[in-house]
Specification:
The chain is an all-alpha fold. 72% of the residues lie in helices and 0% in strands. Helix 8 runs antiparallel to helix 10 and helix 8 crosses helix 12. The radius of gyration is 20 Å and the shape is globular.
Amino acid sequence: MDNYKLNKKIIDNFSNTRLTQLFPPVLLLLIIALTFLYENSLNTEGYIETQKKLFFYLNRFLSKLPDLLFNITQLGDAIIFLPFFTVLIIYTPKFWSTLLTSSFIGLLFSVSLKKFFLVPRPAAVFDNDSFTIIGRTLASTHSSLPSGHSVTTFMIVTTLLFAFMPKEFKLKVFWSSIILSIGLFIAFSRVGVGAHYPFDVVIGCTIGYIAAILGIFINNNIRMGTGLINLRYYPILMLFILIWMVAIVSEIMDRNLLIFYFSLGALILTLGLTIKTYLKK
């Protein structure tokens, strides 16, 4: 499939996305709020206490493979996760223009809601010896809700979900199950490493989904993205990829995790294809 056909396929898939698809996540957020209200837990202390046992259980269960979990949880960082899709800049600019729009919306939601709720992290509330902490101890007193990694993860996987959604029903179910399961695993790794409460993750995933739908809707209506594969912008794209590679090399020097090498490899592949395409044309 050539660049034009693949990009058109994604445009067609995105055109089938409607704002009505916001109803399920908004309803879920409403149900969560009403549940906490019913439990008289619509406050910081109640929010934490209500899910305390669930947090300890999931943290203990998910942290059984600490090395794997620590690598997986890094995918909640856009700098690490997005490189796996940078090759699509060349072939599907519509996907990337939508992804960038959704990323901006997700960032606004994440930052503003963290400042609004001011929920302390688990490490700032519980005895650090009572649960597993993998990696750095995050003990901020105001940045737990929602989980930013979960927002980022579900913003990316939801955009991916709709961009490459098959037409056949059985394939749709299979594709959706695989993509959403991967997203949930990455997101809930935040509980396993001791960085977030379970509902930080659930709410973060829901917000990420909403950000993706809004990003798709905006791009459907303003027709962004066609300029991303214009050859005159390729030198800028190459420079950006090089800077991105330096950032990941810095992460490797700091923590030397396997997942960083995969991200770096994806960027190297994208840079090579970008140079090849630029010189060829």
